Sequence to fold (222 residues):
Amino acid sequence: MPMPRNALSIVFRETISRNRVRDGILYLQITRGVARRDHAFPPPDTAPSIVVTAKSYDLDRLEQGAADGIAVISVPENRWPRVDIKSVSLLPNVLAKQAAREQGAKEAWFVEADGKVTEGSSSNAWIVTRDGAVVTRPADFGILRGITRTVVLDVIAEHGLKLEERPFTMEEAYAAREAFVTSATNFVMPVVRIDGRPIGNGAPGLIASALRRDYHAYAEIA
Fold:
């Protein structure tokens, strides 16, 4: 820890205040510290570095985006095997997100050589099968265990929905009743098109919309 928890809390509140954030995101990054360029670790007594940023959400824009749904493209999985480790080594994610934008989509799903989806460039990937099962990859080495994903799992359990934590293929995604992504910035975001193909009836699905609504109720603290 770069500082005691109570001191870090003061930094958080000051960052929020200076950026005049009411509804938004607070982002914390801690690094091993400042040292001369070298491939080996710096000395053990190197002080850690901390960066805290805050920015506001446009909640109306986010809700409109959820009402419309988003498009997703697929890209080959080309990252190192330990993507469960949250780091700043995000070049493949950046390139995937840019490819999505250039194709008029909001997100890109990484797909392994065997056709199985790992996750999005900045989100976790989900589908709803024709028989109503909610499917997402288990939190193994192949995905980043998102906090929003964890909350949504609790909401799914509260709804009594059938959950399958397993890899799914792109062919399953194309044929799914619904699809959606989860992330800290988009919460639960319905996916209505993948690689130019409409998902379900081409509109946000009932399950994704319900999970988004109840995510807010479950996660927010008055």
User: Anything to note?
Assistant: The helical segments are 5-18, 59-68, 91-102, 147-159, 170-174, 206-219.
